[in-house]
Amino acid sequence: MRPPGVVDQRFESLYLFAACRPGTDETFALALPRVNVDAMTIFLEHFSRQLAPGVHAVLVLDQAGWHDARALLVPETITR
After folding, report:
1. Is 72 inside any structural domain?
2. Could you tell me if residue 47 is inside a domain?
3. Beta pairing class for 78-79 and 57-58
4. Is residue 41 included in any domain, yes or no?
5. What domain range is 46 assigned to?
């Protein structure tokens, strides 16, 4: 059990989801209020919309819980 402690409630968190194309200056980022599967799905939807017509992106993700393929909705223009 964790002992009670003082918590500073003056600040809120903001999480940055980002993708970059290696070897170029091309980047895409989205700041969201939480980290979960729903937020990752929103990021992927927005990222896929900014891809040029006919472009397919491959993203390399770590094994974070919000990257779980069983719950994540990945657009057809993205392979993870």
Report:
1. yes
2. yes
3. parallel
4. yes
5. 15-79
DSSP string, 17-80: EEEE-TTSS-EEEEEES--SHHHHHHHHHHHHHTSPTT--EE------GGG-TTT----TTEE-
- Verdict on whether the full-model pTM lies above 0.85: no
Determine the pLDDT at residue 49.
Answer: 96
Residues 61 and 30: beta-carbon distance below 8 Å = no
Choose among 33, 46, 40, 34: nearest CA to 73. 40
Q: How far apart are CA 35 and CA 12, in angstroms?
A: 13
pLDDT digits (tens, 9 = 90+) for 33-73: 999 999 999 999 999 999 999 999 999 888 888 777 777 88
Q: Residue 7 domain-assigned?
A: no
Angle at 44 between CA 77 and CA 64, to 5 degrees: 120
Into how many domains does the chain fold? Answer: 1
- The pLDDT, as a whole number, for residue 3 is 78
